[in-house]
Amino acid sequence: MKGKILHITADSIVVRAENEQKFEVAHHELKSQIKPNVGDDVDFDITDDAAHSVYILRQSATMDDHIGNAKTAASKLYNQAKGNLNEENLNKAKDLASTTAAKAKKSFNNIDFSKASNAVKSINLPASVGFKIHNKFAILILVLMFISMILPIFRIFNESQSYFKLVESTGLQTTFLFLTLASLLMGLPRMVSRILSVIFIIALCVPIYDGLSFLNDMRGFSDSVGIDGEMMKQVLRNMKLGLPLLLISTLIFAVLQVLPWYQTNEKFLANNNQ
Q: Which CATH architecture describes the domain 2-56?
């Protein structure tokens, strides 16, 4: 018989059948592998006016279920690591860190910075570039993208996380963001600015794509393509201001790379015409 879960307690689940009859079922009668929620549609058998063998008809677990499982797994890993962390292993880790730091310091001291300094000095930019601001709208969008990377974009474990906190390494994104900004300010040749912009957009969007793929994988046993309605509600509930601002500004900045509104500094144009 089909029905719906009305109430859940620590000891039992209250189910209302299609004929409006209510049954109290013990948790061990739940045969599905996903956590029950109030409002879930269920299928169950009735014997001697008692319900048993309850199956939840929802196909996938909610984000709260996955977060709970992640917390449990993290707790187990922490306890295992804590149990293996004895005095001997701690001393080994300290010795390894000391040796690695010494090697890094030695390699750093051997770097010949004079070559890099001479290379920078040899760059011959036009005399009167003066960092004139070109493509003001593109620069504004780029600044908004940087702000959105600092703002909270998602709430995980009841704690707001920014793009910089969620992405393991943001050195590539930050480097090409400022290189792109510099190319727009100086009005470098269009091809140079476009290449820098494309690399920045790709480096920025790869973690976003990985995050969306992760959410899609969390659908559990669902066979549908994309994020289902329940998952979308969970995403919207935990989404912060930074995420829509980041997505919208990234889309606008990508469109700007196709439009022919870019202004190259006249000094560079003059050099090309010589």
A: Beta Barrel (2.40)
